[in-house]
Batch of 2 targets.
Target 1
Amino acid sequence: MINNRLILAAALTAAAASSVQAASRDYISVVGSSTVYPFATVVAETFGKTTAFKTPKIESTGSGGGLKLFCAGVGVEHPDITNASRRIKSSEVERCASNGVNDIVEVKIGYDGIVIANAKSAPQFNLTRRDLFLALAKKVPNVNGGGELIDNPYKTWQDVNASLPATAIEVLGPPPTSGTRDAFVELAMEGGCKTFDFIKAMKKQDKKTYKGICHSIREDGAFIEAGENDNLIVQKLESNPAALGIFGFSFLDQNADKVQGSIVDNVAPTFEAIADGSYPVSRPLYFYVKKAHVGKIPGIQEFLAEFTSDKAWGEEGYLVDKGMIPMPNQERSQFAADVKGLNILRLAK
Amino acid sequence: MNKPAVEQMRTIDRVNATLKQRYNRECRFRRFGLGAVLLGLLFVGLMFLNIIGNGYSAFQQTRILLEIDYRAEVIDPTGARDPATLSSADYAALVKSSLRALFPAVQGRGEKRELYGMLSSGAFLELRRRVMADPGLIGTREQLWLPVDDDIDMLVKGYIDRRLPESERRLDNRVVAWVEQLESTGAIEKQFNLTFLTGGDSREPELAGIGGAVMGSLYTLIVTLLLSFPIGVAAAVYLEEFAPRNRWTDLVEVNINNLAAVPSIVFGLLGLAVFINFFGLPRSAPLVGGMVLTLMTLPTIIIASRAALKSVPPSIREAALGVGASRMQTVFHHVLPLAMPGMLTGTIIGMAQALGETAPLLMIGMVAFIVDIPGGALDPSTVLPVQIFLWADSPERAFMEKTSAAIMVLLGFLILMNVIAVILRKRFERRW
């Protein structure tokens, strides 16, 4: 009994000591997008190895979850940096402000391409965004015209576009919680959706319905939610040559012997095509820094310098080796200058 | 009793008529049972084969033998042997010049970049560690095995097919030719991968190890054990030996049984709300992880401990009370030691469950990239199953074997815990 009491007492003291410890933190805490995670972690590791500072802790919480944690307040118990595979929303900036997080530094780090790939053993697809929309949307315009929307009737790719093979539509993609899914829906589906004039006209009048049409993916089995794990999608594609899969460019880059990226709008998903912006399904990656923490938590400024150095995000930097697509020189030097001066984010209202 | 002979005959006839059928039925049932066991074994066997087949190669790491020249003008130009200078010296340059010496024909920026890329980007750290440990090395030469990049490692281990056309391979013909040249001279070989067992996480597969995750798991389990065992046993002893039987204790009992069935993620949410947001404990710390897992394992331990207490024969209690022991003495001197083996089994099963848990830790920030090996229950850390989860999601192909190898280590720990449970139980049983 005495022993038990001692152990309990020890645990309670440990708990008390920890709240003291929370009053100061000697490592950088980063949260946010799982898409930026592989890049942020490389920078963090290099930073930890080459400086006297501790290696930053990086949590993979998703863009939305990361911004929620980030905006929870100022102080050592809140993260210093959040990664995002999309830009911060004005609603999130407001939430930040209501919790006292006023000065946020925005850093764009580069681009990530989203590829639609299939197994090497099958012929390469040549798609347009319109094809993707017609093949995957929940509701599509009636072929007879008239601006009427019907439940997606297409069974094979040939039904969608006569030049495509007559295989059944089967696409493995990420679930709605994933940033990759958001980006795919926004860039590919909406891009194809907009090619119908009457839907495009709807955008001005009724944005909600417009989004509902363009952003809804069919639920009749043609689109299969394959989970967040892109490696799994690659494996499934390999064993099922009839299927297409949606995932990030770095997985295509690593598995070029197993899968091939489909051509979208006449552009193949290559490093160069994503970098110069001609490949249509690519998105920018960001991270956001809490300016109030700079100087309080050791190493933030040095970490930013490492991230924005040419040896990291430059055209031959180590982030490129990990599959990130760098920004053009001019954009890069502009963001590097913003970071150096810790210029605060201003969203255009 | 005295039934007519005709009827007796009829009974034995009926028995005989169905005898074969009954034997068949039993035989079928036995076969079904055996089949079920074999099927289970088959799946376990397949799982083990698959994991071991994928993972065994991660315990080896390809290394290249290089002659390193610790040039004083690069490491310590002033000769002051100042640790700060030694630590920030350009060791990568030493590695690069050794590589150039090995392949003198390599010219041009692109080609050189490719050559340097053959070695792990962390290879220079080994030089730094050696020089920091022994500054006497400066100015000398040394043969050193240095780790290669993960792509080369995959090539040497045969995961990259050399016969594929160049465009479909991650390595071009030039690099493959270099590797083959090294293979012919024996300057490249697979060696035991100690880094995998002792190192922290890394984004470079050849530098990544489970050391940090194992330490994180250890601290988490220590916290869990220190909290859940005393609380669980105390709760079980009170409920079983002291508590009055009434509606309140019934309610408590029902709730403990219900808690055992609560999905573990719920405990994570609770931990986030109570321990982190309310009490302000640090995120990602094994302390919080251990507290959350305590909540999760408590029902298991309480239920197992109560079962163990119930199985102690009442005659022991009565005999102790009969010779004048107090109820507390009865419980602590006689009942508890007898029930201990069962309690320990329950505790170890609970611990094994906690060791394999990921979902609740997701909520409290233990799913994170942490390079530094944690030194205590308050340092940010991750645990083994989380490490497996993170690696399984990494694009680099070399992480696939690391994932399987980490699963092997986790399974090894689970088997070890079960063995310890059996041994402890046996020893306690012998004493009483």
Target 2
Amino acid sequence: MTQVTMTVNGKAVSGTVEGRTLLAEFLREGLRMTGTHIGCDTSQCGACVVHVNGNAIKSCTALALDLDGASVVTIEGMANPDGSLSVIQQAFQDHHGLQCGFCTPGMVMSAAALLKENPKPTEAEVRAYLEGNICRCTGYHNIVKAIMAASGQDVSAIAAE
Amino acid sequence: MPKDHGIGASSKRREDVRFLTGRGRYTDDINLHGQTYVHFLRSDVAHGRLHKVDTSAAEAMPGVVRIFTGKDFEGVGGLPCGWQVTDRHGNPMQEPAHPVLAQGKVRHVGDPIAAVVAETAAQARNAAEAIVLDIEELPAVVDMKKALSADAPKVHDDLTSNLCYDWGFVEENKGAVDEAFARAAHVTTLELVNNRLSPNAMEPRVAVGDYNAGTDDSTLYTTSQNPHVIRLLMGAFVLGIPEHKLRVVAPDVGGGFGSKIFHYAEEAFCTFAAKQIRRPVKWTCSRSEAFITDAHGRDHVTKIELALDAENNFTALRTETYANMGAYLSTFAPSVPTWLHGTLMAGNYKTPLIYVNVKAVFTNTVPVDAYRGAGRPEATYQLERLVDKAARELGVDPVDLRRQNFVTQFPYATPVAVEYDTGDYHATMDKLLEMIDRDGFEARAAKSKADGKLRGLGINCYIEACGIAPSALVGQLGARAGLYESATVRVNATGGIVVMTGSHSHGQGHETSFAQVVADMIGVPEAQVEIVHGDTANTPMGMGTYGSRSIAVGGSAMVRATEKIINKAKKIAAHLLEASDSDIELKDGQFTVAGTDKSVAWGDVTLAAYVPHNYPLTELEPGLEETAFYDPNNFTYPAGAYACEVEIDPDTGKVRICSFAAADDFGNVINPMIVSGQVHGGLAQGIGQALLENVSYDENGQLLSASYMDYAMPRADDVPFYQVDHSCVTPCTHNPLGVKGCGEAGAIGSPPAVVNAVIDALHRGGMTHVAHIDMPLTPARVWSAMQG
């Protein structure tokens, strides 16, 4: 077991990990931050996406040990400082971009990364970017719509609620 | 003007805040003091005789607490089946034992053999690798028709064959149906496969068992759609724990789609083992494990025939289906190809004579049970593909052929034992055609052609049956459960309302939509109503959520309980206002004496109920809390019309969905936003079935599609924005809200639209030899079909 120290959502944290401990496991089991979800074991589903040093990664693909000193942002760190929903989170609620909520943390983290690199993505760009995030509930319609709305685009012409 | 609150409003979902901020509480987020972790050692062969399970080396591994094998469960009940089907000769189905851990034989890849309980999950996994198995591999049966041959290996040695049942429906009609075929002017025949699917809720299953030795109470936290059903099945049939000593909690659950209805071995194991070792036992399923343990769906092989007279009226329908049960009978498996499938074979049509034959077959594969739609997608797919083929053979418009045969008079008693209470199939078809600009299709097809693509349009109808009931009827059909729903409405002294429902929300948004109903009935803000679900300790006995039943059955129970509340509150108000309770009106949270300006507010009445100083105590009990159980007197019958436009790349066979439109009649709608979301999700699952998804076994029973690298889940770029509409409303005639249910429609109605569109594109492209392609319509399958 080895000690690792990192910054998670702006706070210094540390814990002991095995060499094989994944970042997702360290967050969930080590820090009891259960907002990050694990939906598969082949790095396909994207429920575990977090930001590490400003980049979106699947936290099931990173070893906690490798991230000593890293700055990590998880879904628990995405709300506004006053606790209100951020623009992206609010858009997901406004446009019903979630149902069971299990894929949602990863979706929000991926959406934030997308809008950082592409502030006004087209529908096709949103869909292509979400290739690594699987949702079984929404059929993606309202997720894509929510992300486009969060980017400030008018989504009123997109069908239905 | 859309409503901004109450019934009919697109109220934003209150549950979203916790999910969007990482504060959901799913079963895997629960960690109990002193908990241990279990890892199941599972069979990696599809069929084998289990000679020895040597755990001695594993027991000495670091962190191991105890290792369990089938021997530990010899005196324990097996997993029960909740539905007994009677075959066409009047005999009960063959019903094999289903042990918690394998005893004597393993029957599918994934069958649990041993369970290692250790201090950490990693230690449990490590120790499982040190268990030495002596398994004599036996030939496996995977293909259903081969499984029924006389010399096929038997999945269960103590059964007479691999045939679970041979069901005929309605058996008495068989002769008349055959005669109608003999007289037919035209017969259309289609053989097809309804592909096996894996439900794949994004949250893998989890179970945490806990035991309190001080009180002899057991608690199970589990990813379930119906915690009371699990409590009853596990308590009464597996472990022998009475309900008052067993609590089942299904907290936030990350999707179900049917797969979390059933009682699974891991739930019984964790509850059992926690008592044995006097410590909590936690199991978290990996996705790889989910593919070989979560019940699969569909997997029907069908021959269907339609008889028509010279005027193209449907005169008879005849089907023969082989339905895969897998290696054991999952909780509701026998009902899916029978009572949830045969009863829907009339579809939207007034076909007078129908005969459905289903042979359910055991194979060395994962058990198959209900998956979103459960039987109804299988019925709809075969019927709507068949009608499309008939139209093509007869050279008539597929919409016209459907319209000509629509049921138009309601109530309508079908020849397959159900009575549609209401509907308007022309209305949803009209709406659909308005949505899709059918007249503009030729121009769009010409544009596709200019781009080197083949464009096709597929249209179909569907009918669905939700809220399966009444209990007395389903009991006669073999259900070993009631199918009512319950609600307790508790009004607090200061006017806040808590509804404890037996339904369960795992994505459907009940916490929002159920609150809308009660708030509307009483006339208080929605925020004043809280919905509690998912814990047998604080909700009345309910049957849970599946089969699109929650609002139709659970919502009705809640309405009945709220009506009782209002009746009592009016009596209290009458006392306070010194009036007769028959003169009291409730509007916007205010009780008024009719025709006067005398009134008291909701909060005055609720306070009086709990501080009964000025109160008719001799006539009325204090307090304001009521419970209702609601047992519907019929199913509800949502219906609609769907259309899909596709473009095929002729060089690769790749199908692209250009547009998808759904016109549904769900009866009255509580929250249009949530209803649209339910349809969207169903459409993606139906499109996934039609184009992408397939559970594939090799002939030895090895699962080839056991991860997201091999099982093609629909992703964001596989689907378009959908057009959905639910403005066609024929309210259900027999429940208080006039609601029908919307959860499964999308998955039921969409596969035939996609396949019809692909066949249409190929025919328009001159490939008239392609009568059918089995799902999923992968590029390879489409391209191969195009080559002839």
